[in-house]
């Protein structure tokens, strides 16, 4: 098997692994559990009957926070799963290096993916959620 075929096979395997990624988190009291898929889309919400005694606005907040925690876990799994691809792509030359005057794809990517740390400060409270 040549290098190209091997890379195609590895990419197909990574694609299959991504389809299996799930993030699941539970609220601190265990009354709310949310599962999300690899895209962070909610696929399941389980409520213990005791959760229904919570005021609606509080329950909504708890479900939202738990869903965010689950999405964060799924995102980490996706990042871990695609890291072999990231390593391969990182070693390739940038478009601007190949074509003078072309835009740098790395600069555009970092502009999209680099989020200042202080924007995540509000999510620190989710560390108390069970994973």
Which strand-content bin applies to the residues? 5-15%
Q: What's the arrangement of strands in the largest beta sheet? A: 1-2-3
Q: Helix share of residues? A: 40-55%
- What sequence of helices (H) and strands (E) makes up the elements? HEEEHHH
Q: What's the rounded overall pLDDT mean?
A: 80
- The count of β-strands is 3
Query: Helix- and strand-based class?
Result: mainly alpha
Largest sheet descriptor: 3 strands, antiparallel
Give me the Rg, rounded.
20 Å
Poorly predicted residue ranges: 109-126
Give the termini separation. 40 Å
- The total count of helices amounts to 4
Would you spell out the secondary-structure blueprint of this structure?
Layout: H1 3-19, E1 23-26, E2 32-36, E3 42-47, H2 56-90, H3 95-98, H4 105-113
Antiparallel strand pairs: 1-2, 2-3
Structure description:
This protein has 131 residues and is mainly alpha-helical. Helices cover 50% and strands 11% of the residues. Strands 1-2-3 form a three-stranded antiparallel β-sheet, with helices on one face. Helix 1 (3-19) packs antiparallel against helix 2 (56-90). It is elongated, with a radius of gyration of 20 Å.
């Amino acid at each position: 098997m040549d290098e190209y075929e091997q890379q195609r096979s590895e990419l197909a395997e990574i694609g299959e692994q991504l389809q299996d990624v799930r993030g699941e988190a539970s609220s601190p009291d265990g009354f709310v559990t949310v599962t999300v898929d690899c895209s962070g889309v909610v696929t399941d919400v389980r409520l213990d009957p005791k959760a229904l005694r919570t005021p609606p606005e509080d329950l909504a907040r708890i479900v939202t926070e738990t869903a965010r925690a689950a999405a964060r876990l799924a995102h980490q799994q996706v990042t871990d799963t695609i890291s072999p691809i990231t390593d391969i792509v990182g070693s390739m030359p940038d478009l601007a290096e190949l074509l003078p005057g072309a835009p740098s794809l790395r600069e555009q990517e970092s502009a999209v993916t680099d989020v200042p740390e202080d924007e995540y400060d509000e999510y620190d409270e989710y560390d108390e959620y069970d994973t």
